Amino acid sequence: MKKKNRMIIFTAVLSMFVLLACGLLDTAREIADFAGEVKDFQENVEVGQPVDDKGGSTDKNKPQEVSGKDLEGFPLYPGSVRTFYISLTEGDSKATQLIYEVPKLPEETLDYYQEEMEKHGWEITSSMHWGADSYYLVAEGDDGKEIILTIGESNFPDYTHLVVQANH
Question: What's the CATH number for 50-167?
Answer without folding.
Answer: 3.40.1000
